[in-house]
Amino acid sequence: MARIAWVTLPNWKHVEIALTYVYWVGRSLSNKVLDEVKIPKNKKIETLSEEELDQIRDELKKHIIEWDLRREVSQNIKRLQEINSYRGIRHKKHLPVRWQRTKTNSRTRKWKAVSIANKKK
Fold first, then answer.
1. At what angle do helices 27-37 and 50-60 cross, to 10 degrees?
2. pLDDT tens, 92-103?
3. What angle do CA 61, 48, 9 make, to 5 degrees?
4. What angle do CA 70, 73, 78 make, to 5 degrees?
5. Which domains are delineated in the chain?
6. Does the pTM exceed 0.85?
7. Which of 25, 29, 97, 115 is the most buried (most CB within 10 A)?
8. Are 14 and 47 within 8 A, CB to CB?
């Protein structure tokens, strides 16, 4: 099994799709990486050699992905909360951050859905 950026990639998938298992690597970034490395997109992960995997790893090191990006995002949110900005306060209260309405929407952001057990008919 191939591991890239601490993520185990599924062997039976094409390289283009399997790279999307890494956080923040979408189809467009995976296509760019494969074009730079000159690996066909429809090749399966299990057929890649170790040299090709190393080339992909080296190309992905040019981008901020996986844990580095997760840490950066969480630090940005903590910074907003510490300076008590509007967005930071909304993050603290688990409410929508970007000016969405909350009267009828945002049930998943506010709390978990509760089923009504004995609803009168």
1. 120
2. 988 899 988 888
3. 60
4. 125
5. 2-60 (1.10.8.50), 66-102 (4.10.910.10)
6. no
7. 25
8. no
